[in-house]
Amino acid sequence: MSAVDAAGLGRGRAVGFVLPALVLIGVFLVFPALWTIYLGLTDYRLTGLAAANPQVVGLDNYTDALRDPRFLGSLWLTVGYVGGSAVLGQAVLGFALAWVLRTRTGRLRRLVEGVVLLSWILPSTVVGFLWFALLDRDDGTLNALLNTPGFAWLLDHPLLSIIVFNVWRGTAFSMMLYSAALENVPPSHLETARLAGASVFQQLRDVVLPLIRRHVLTNLLLISLWTFNDFTPFVLTGGGPEGRSEILPIYVYNVALRGGELGAGAAVSFLILLINLAFALVYLRLLRDRRRREAALTGGPPA
């Protein structure tokens, strides 16, 4: 067998191995994405004449959504939800747990890690109903512990309730990622900084964070995207009361399924996709700039 034939056979085998994965990606990712884009350009509905014979309306669904005060309100609620629960909640609390547990061994560390991980691996719906029972106005566990019978947490503070719920549920991922990152910080660097009189804050700022900055960026990107597309708060509040916890995933559900406007819901879904892409592009830009600075300091070629 010649070298050309061998190379062709190798490429054929490679294609044979990759083809099933490409088919699955096409069926479950590419086709639904293209179908959603098409629906967003039509007036397709669940019922009525538009369900049997949808018409192409162009960008009307997008312009209507951008002019809709309800959509803009949901967008700002989502920004607050992501900022409060992912950026200020999960990232900070996850790092704090990882930092405190980095030098701990034995049962205490295993117990804390087990409890935190349990909240993350439980099904989201199960966790949602558990928190609903915790915050219930009539028979809620929290009111029983605080001796505040009848206090309606989910009605009076719906956004705060789902933020705290998501922090409790998602901190485990940040904790595990930061725990792995902190293992790459040389203990000698921290010891040198401590002997030089650096406070804990100065050690974190000058030694730890520069070494784990990539992990921080990766963690912020992932938890922000997950939180931005999270539908679980629907179990707690259903988007209410009066839309005060109607984040974008719940808004899409209400428009597309409850309202029957599949075309409008698909258009909003595509807008959400564009926002997610913007998050990813910002992350890639920050990561690229970081690599260029590191290459300039070490004298190596930029990545």
From TrEMBL:
InterPro entries: MetI-like, MetI-like_sf. GO terms for biological process: transmembrane transport. It is found in: Cell membrane. Keywords: Cell membrane, Membrane, Transmembrane, Transmembrane helix, Transport. The chain crosses the membrane at residues 12-38, 75-99, 111-134, 150-168, 211-228, 262-284. Residues 76-283 form the ABC transmembrane type-1 domain. GO terms for cellular component: plasma membrane. The keyword Cell membrane applies. It comes from the Bacteria. It is a multi-pass membrane protein. Its main location: membrane. PROSITE patterns: ABC_TM1 (PS50928). Belongs to the binding-protein-dependent transport system permease family. This is Amino acid ABC transporter permease. It comes from Nonomuraea cavernae.
